[in-house]
Design goal:
This protein is an alpha/beta fold and about 525 residues long. Among the domains are: about 25-160, 3-Layer(aba) Sandwich (Rossmann fold); about 185-280, Hect, E3 ligase catalytic domain fold (Alpha-Beta Complex), CATH 3.90.1750.20; about 300-345, Single Sheet (N-terminal domain of TfIIb), CATH 2.20.25; about 370-430. The chain has 19 helices and 15 strands. It has helices spanning about 1-10, 35-40, 45-55, 80-90, 100-105, 110-120, 140-170, 200-215, 215-225, 235-240, 270-280, 335-350, 355-405, 410-430, 440-450, 455-460, 465-475, 495-505, 505-510; strands spanning about 25-30, 60-70, 95-100, 125-130, 185-190, 190-195, 250, 260, 300-305, 310-315, 320-325, 335, 480, 485-490, 515-520. Strands 2-1-3-4 form a four-stranded parallel beta sheet, sandwiched between helices. Helix 8 packs across helix 9 (about 215-225). It is extended. The relative contact order is 0.06.
Length: about 525
């Protein structure tokens, strides 16, 4: 009988349970706010209670986690996840996680129950030092789950009270939350007060430029930079639409209504409305154009049949670039890899290797021309800067006189518009004057090297720089003819073409076996290439 049982034993179901629990544990402590963490409020108390619980239950602490502020409303917490990762991956089996109380572990209710279930499957038990529970029994497990649910319920009650308090404050004109751009929250007499700062005083000009001069977001961003205020042009429209700047508050807690705030307004209601009339004219606002790296000829390449720009796209399955004409019935499309090869061949035809004397002459001429132009620009830049400061002073004085009622609104607007028009002209001229190159000689060497090896440069440049280079070399773009399988262009940058022909005869380019045709006449003794200033 015994022998038969032994033989049939392998057919038995179920496994003999082996208790693999150890006395290794980790401790997790946390508080909800930064202020509590900075003051070490309750963190030391939590850790002390957890350590005592471990000693009392003969548990060996293998690590302390938390010790900082983390919200328990959800379980996307850095220290919390660090602790869970340690428990799962530790070489020394961790069987217990000790917290001060259940709400220190999580307040996410159902999600907290799920996490503890997953931990239990791995042999990890959760214990609260102030709420010890035997979770090995159904009643103990139920008790712990009820504690999780009550913690979530308590969170919801707190949130409801907090939201009610915020609603009451905002209906009374007091802003709650992060201060809008141009304002800051300061502590005065034990209360948080929102005050206008220097950024806000400068940003006031953005409303005037939009309302009276109808400037774009990009232009407004550039002008603000002149006053030392950097604002991303993509955020300009968002700020201009915020009624906070004219004294009113808009918030989702206000149930779709505007409330007059007690904060300082930087503009009038009339100016805000006038500026937003101009903002709304641009329905799409600021748009981002995400370019595709593998198709740099997009928009630059034109159809040789209808003359329309060819769009570029990728066949995702094979990651192959293609160009196609959108004109109905044109059916002009071509592999991007082939067109890129033709384009690089065209650039290679335009390469040059100048003789040392010729290269030295060109270098000196470029430097002399640059110095002459920039000498004049530097002188103009100083004048423009002085005039900008003078006009700004006039505008400031005009505003002061209007505020103290020395002049009427009609005079303020008339002279204000005149000054702003003058200011725009001066700022545009100032921006166009550009910046001077720090190491001019080295810069010219690099530029000449790049211009003589365009085919190599095109391969290594970024998408944005490729597009710029294409337009410089071929001002009228290039066209692709599907019938002849050829690309052609009507214009090549004069400077590049001229020095390319010094290296080799342009006729070789036309007669060579190539998929690219230069539809341009041979160079003759063209006037206008004389040195602007003597090189010696």
């Amino acid at each position: 009988m015994i022998e038969t049982t032994t033989l049939l034993g392998k057919f038995a179901k179920g496994k003999v349970f082996k208790d693999e629990r150890t006395n290794n544990c980790v401790i997790y402590t946390r508080v909800s706010t930064k202020e509590q963490a900075d003051n070490n409020l309750s963190l030391e108390t939590q850790r002390k209670a957890c350590d005592q619980f471990a000693i009392k239950n003969d548990l060996l602490v293998k690590g302390h986690f938390g010790g900082t502020y983390e919200s328990a409303k959800n379980d996307e917490r850095k220290e919390f996840n660090h602790m869970l990762s340690f428990v799962k991956r530790s070489r020394e089996k961790i069987s217990t996680i000790i917290v001060y109380s259940i709400d220190r572990f999580s307040r996410s209710g159902g999600n907290a129950i799920y996490i503890t279930e997953q931990l239990k499957k791995q042999g990890v038990n959760l214990q609260a030092a102030t709420q010890p529970t035997d979770t090995s029994t159904p009643s103990g497990k139920l008790q712990q789950n009820i504690q999780f649910i009550f913690s979530e319920y308590d969170n919801q009650l707190r949130r409801e009270k907090s939201v009610a308090g915020m609603k009451e404050a905002m209906n009374g004109g007091r802003w709650c939350g992060k201060a809008p751009f141009g304002y800051e929250i300061v502590r005065k007499e034990g209360k948080n007060v929102i005050e206008l700062n220097e950024k806000g005083r400068i940003f006031k000009k953005a409303f005037e430029w939009k309302a009276y001069e109808k400037l774009s977001s990009a232009d407004i961003s550039r002008r603000l930079a002149l006053f030392g205020l950097e604002v991303d042009e993509r955020r300009i429209s968002e700020h201009l639409r915020n009624p906070f700047y004219c004294g009113y508050m808009s918030h989702k807690l206000l149930d779709g209504k505007l409330v007059k705030g007690i904060h300082e307004a930087i503009i009038s209601h009339e100016l805000f409305i006038k500026a937003n009339i101009e903002v709304e004219k641009n329905e799409h606002g600021y748009s981002l154009h995400f370019e595709n790296e593998p198709i740099p000829l997009k928009g630059f390449l034109k159809c040789g049949h209808c003359g329309q720009p060819m769009r570029g796209y990728l066949i995702k399955a094979k990651n192959l670039p293609y160009y196609k004409c959108n004109t109905k019935g044109c059916c002009n499309n071509k592999s991007g890899n082939d067109l890129h090869r033709y384009f690089k061949q065209a650039l290679e035809y335009l390469k040059w290797e100048l003789m040392p004397d010729t290269k030295d002459f060109v270098k000196k001429q470029v430097i002399a021309t640059y110095n002459k132009i920039n000498r004049e620009r530097e002188e103009d830049k100083v004048k423009f800067r002085e005039q900008i400061m003078e006009i700004n002073s006039k505008l400031k004085r005009l505003e002061e006189r209007f505020m103290i009622e020395e002049i009427t609104l009609d005079l303020y607007q008339r002279y204000g518009n005149t000054y702003r028009e003058e200011l725009k002209k001066m700022e545009d001229a100032y921006n166009e004057s550009g910046k001077r190159v720090s190491n001019l000689e080295k810069c010219v060497d690099v530029a000449l090297e790049m211009a003589g090896n365009l085919h190599r440069m095109w391969e290594v440049l970024t998408f944005k720089d490729r597009v710029i280079m294409q337009r410089v070399v071929f001002p009228e773009g290039i066209q692709y003819d599907k019938k002849t399988n050829r690309c052609r262009t009507k214009e090549v940058n004069f400077f590049i073409r001229y020095f390319s022909q010094l290296s080799k005869d342009a006729a070789e380019i036309k007669n060579g076996d190539s998929n690219f045709i230069f539809e341009i006449p041979a160079l003759v003794g063209t006037t206008g290439f004389e040195p602007v200033t003597p090189c010696l």
